[in-house]
Structures are given as structure tokens and as C-alpha cells.
Amino acid sequence: MFSKLKQIMKQPCIAVDLGTANTRIYSSELGQIMEKPSLIPQLPAGKTTFVSDEYLSYLNSKLVVTPLRGGVIVDIKKAITLLQPLLKETGKGLRHPISLASAPTDTSDKERELLAKAVLHAGASHVAIIPEAWAAAIGAGMDVTLPYAQVIVDIGEGVTDMAVIRDRHLIFASAVRTACSDLQKAIRSAIILKHKVCLSFDEIERLTHEISSMSQRQTLDPKTITVRGMDIIKKCLVAIDVNKLDIVSAMEPVIHKILKMIDSGLKKLPQTISSEVLESGICLSGGGACINGIDRLIASRTRLDVRIAPDPIHSVINGEIETLNYWKGHRNWWQNIVWPRLLSGYSLQT
Ligand SMILES: Nc1ncnc2c1ncn2[C@@H]1O[C@H](COP(=O)(O)OP(=O)(O)OP(=O)(O)O)[C@@H](O)[C@H]1O
Ligand SMILES: [Mg+2]
User: Fold this and answer.
1) C-alpha distances in angstroms, 264 versus 121, 172, 180?
2) Residue 189 Cα to ligand 2 middle (Å)
3) In this model, does residue 93 exceed pLDDT 80?
4) Which tens digit of pLDDT belongs to each residue from 136-191?
5) Which atom number of ligand 1 is nearest to the Cα of residue 22?
6) Domains (ranges, CATH) in the chain?
7) Ligand 1 atom at minimal distance to the Cα of residue 179
């Protein structure tokens, strides 16, 4: 009975990866990751529009919003609505969980405050925030204690985050709020412009997953792909054949923006660090790491070895879980976690 009471009184720990596309929460009590799209229906609960017209039904299905843009919260109320039920599921005890969360390396104090506020309002008792790229590096299996520089690039839905890690320190970081969602927007616009057809989110996602990036321009075979979408002139669902090269061309400017951020970040590194990176290469994580051919593109632009993390989509949450395990048993561990001061030789404790 005493052990049962102890169990109920134990303060659980959770890890939160609140992403622009997906939210992942790990609970120490359940020992598992819960995952769901970061989407909130725009209609009030229980209210649906019963429309027979397929065009209106199609529009209705679009009435979902994400509380994040570019990897940061833009609507705190919706962020809390998203997190609350997930946090509720994380514990059976009486006490509110202590939460570890992560934010892109380029976030302002205000943006991180908003994240902390959302997690606290959703039900956590305390929250500590670490850089997303740092968590991604640990979750990708990098040994962050090694005495030479290693580079991680996390390409998510809203933000591409890059960090250079050396000897337990995050010594350089750079980010651009351009990632997979911009690729999808570019594809959607190109298809509307050419075919006057609006593709559903799922259909656009299928396209980005199936089509290789422009490193394989010559090998796009077959040349077309059939997609279904809403004809915005006739207002009915249609199937169209889309030229794969058009998709690749639409993706190009977005991919170039990502490549430019990585390349110019690497050029800012001191010579000694650059030569270490030449040896260690770049590790890719995040959903964007799965874009066919993205590793080859980054390799040819940077002339570095590029590898994809073993489980790129879960690198951030896995890194947070490892960080939680590291702190297990330490009293008030969350107070030891400070956001790194990148330019003034800070020390990030893990
Ligand atoms: N195999 C794949 N090919 C291409 N894109 C993919 C693949 N798998 C996932 N993605 C894309 O990855 C994106 C989601 O990535 P991820 O889950 O890392 O984002 P997030 O963590 O929610 O966003 P962020 O960290 O930027 O806030 C989606 O746009 C999805 O389509
Ligand atoms: Mg992410």
C-alpha cells in the first residue's frame, strides 16, 4: 500500500517536442511517446457543417489550423488546447509533471517564454527548455562529449535549425524559418497556377515524399504523376497528370534557401573548427531529412559527408528523453538547465 501511495505521489517527468507539423510527448510514467499532428479544428467542438456539396465538404476539411509557424507558437490558446489532452494522458498520479521542452536555436526570449507558458498552462508544474538542434544531435546518436566539432541540421516543417557541437558545448547555431511547409506551399501554388487545381494537404505530402529533389532531375522516370485535387474553376474533384519536373522546379528556390543557410553558417566557422567538421561531416534529422536526395544536395553544396540520423523524425524527442534520463534522480534538475548564450562562451549542461 505504501509503495502504491509513493507511486501516486511521485512527480512524473515528460518531454515535449511541440513541432509545427507534429507534437510528440514522452511520459516517464508510461514509458512511451505519444504523437499527433499539431492541428486544431477551427470549428467549435461538436459543430460540423453538414454539406452535401463535395466542394464545400472539401473546404470544410481545410478548417484546421496549427498554433505554430516557423517552429514557434503564434497562437498560445490553440497551443494549450493542443497540449492539454496530451499532458492529461501522461500521468496517473496526483502531481503535475515536470517538463523538458525544446525550441529552435534562433528563438527569442519572448518566444521561449510563450512555449513555457503553454506547457505550464497545459498542466506541467515546471518547464525547462533546451535547443532543438542540441536535442536532435543527442537523439541522432551523436556523442556530444567528443573533443571535435560535429554538425547537426534539423529540417522540420517550419524551421531548419543547424548547430555545431563540440566538447559538450553548442558552439555555433544558425536557423532559417523555411522548411517542409514552404516546399509544400510552393508545390501547391505551382499546381494551382498551371492546372487551376488545388491539392489537399495529404496529396501534396504524397508528392513531396515520392518525388526526389533536384539532384536527380535527369532520372525522373516516369515523367508525370497523377494527383487528385479540387478544380477551382469547375469546383469539382479531378485527377490530373502533373509533370514531375514542374514539382522539382517549384521546390528548387526553397531548397536553395535551406542550402544557403547551411553553407553560409559553415563559412562563418573558424578554420580549426572547419577542419574538424571536414572530418566529422553533417548529420541530418527532422522530417525534411527524409526528402529524397536532400543528403546528396547538401553534400554537393558543402563538400562534406552527409548522413541521415537513424530515426530522423524522432531525433528531437529521443534526445529530450536521453536528457531526462541523464537528470533522473537529481533534485530540482530543471533549475540547472539554462538556455545557451551562443556568443559569450556559455556552457550547456546536459
Ligand atoms: N519521407 C518523407 N519525404 C519527404 N518529406 C517528409 C517525409 N517524411 C516526413 N516528411 C515531412 O516532414 C515534415 C514534418 O517534419 P517534422 O515532424 O520534423 O516537423 P516538426 O518537428 O513538426 O516541425 P518544426 O520542427 O519545424 O517545428 C512534413 O512536412 C512531412 O511531410
Ligand atoms: Mg521539429
Assistant:
1) 39, 12, 20
2) 24
3) no
4) 999 999 999 999 999 999 999 999 999 999 999 999 999 999 999 999 999 999 99
5) 22
6) 2-139+313-344 (3.30.420.40), 153-179+252-308 (3.30.420.40), 180-249 (3.90.640.10)
7) 26
State the burial class of residue 240 (Cβ atoms within 10 Å of its Cβ: 0-12, 13-18, 19+).
middle
Task: With cut-offs at 50, 70 and 90, classify the pLDDT of residue 343.
Answer: very low
Of ligand 1's atoms, which has the minimum distance to the CA of residue 316? 21
Buried b (16+ CB within 10 A) or exposed e, 320-347: bbebbeebeeeeebbeebebbebeeeee
The pTM (predicted TM-score) of the whole model is: 0.90
d(C-alpha 314, C-alpha 319), whole Å: 8
Ligand 1, residues at Cβ distance < 6 Å: 19-22, 68, 71, 156-159, 179-180, 205, 208-209, 286-288, 290-291, 313
Q: What CA–CA distances, in Å, run from 153 to 28, 85, 235, 303? A: 27, 31, 41, 15
Q: Which ligand is nearest to the CA of 211?
A: 1
Query: Mutate which of 134, 160, 180 to test ligand 1's pocket (most atoms within 8 Å of Cβ)?
Result: 180
